[in-house]
Amino acid sequence: MRHLVIAVDCDDVLTPTAEWILRTYEQTFGVWVALEDFYSSNPKTWGATTHEQASARVASLLETPEYAAIKPYHGAVEVLSRLRETHELHLVTGRPKYLEPVTGAMLDRYFPSFFQSVNHTSHFEGGKRGKGEVCAEIGADLLIDDHIVHLNSVQEANLQESILFGDYPWNQIESLPAGVVRCATWAEVEREVARIVNQ
Q1: How many Å apart are CA 40 and CA 63, to the nearest integer?
Q2: Higher confidence at residue 134 or residue 14?
Q3: CA nearest 92: which of 137, 158, 38?
Q4: For the residues 72-98, what does the mean pLDDT come to?
Q5: What is the mean pLDDT of residues 159-179?
């Protein structure tokens, strides 16, 4: 059986993060933000006067125990538990470095010792390392991510196989690039990994 090095994103791949952030943001700040506006940089969307204020509000939610305790998607723990028996797993997330303790707490709770390495790229804080660079460093054969920008990044680094996870407003695209397959659930991810292994 072919042994794969698999890079796995965290937010909205392992856990339904966006929904939790938007629900908690409304409860905390009294502002409703639609899921399709989750990546909006317009402060008015977030009921704020500046981008910095909106970012600070979101950041205040990310450092809470509740954020670390978001339950994984159905099937994520079970599928990754099986995949790690044959393949090598690495977490590659766009989360900022300051969230390393929060990420660690989540992994310890739900995915203990699943991942050979945990990599924070600080994508939304202007991090210098893209996921393509990280995947090249770890020798990844496959990236599972919910954002097309990261799949483009790894393709530029010559990664041949990627899974676009979920069916979100921010990852809609008319036609997927070669080597990219959309999987809406972890059951579909497991089937796609099996296809890649056996091709």
Answers
A1: 21
A2: 14
A3: 137
A4: 95
A5: 90
Both 175 and 134 in a single domain? yes
Enclosing domain of residue 54: 18-68
- pLDDT per position as a tens digit, 111-167: 999 999 999 987 665 556 788 889 989 999 999 999 988 777 777 767 778 999 999
Q: Is 83 found in the same domain as 51?
A: no
Q: Percent of the chain, pLDDT > 70? A: 95
Residue whose C-alpha is closest to residue 69's, from 109, 99, 101: 109
Same domain as 108, residue 48: no
Coil, strand or helix: which one is 162? strand
Do 38 and 113 fall into the same domain?
A: no
How far from 181 is each of 48, 75, 178, 192, CA to CA, in Å? 37, 18, 8, 8
d(CA 12, CA 104): 17
**Domain match, 100 and 190 both:** yes
Whether 63 and 79 share a structural domain: no
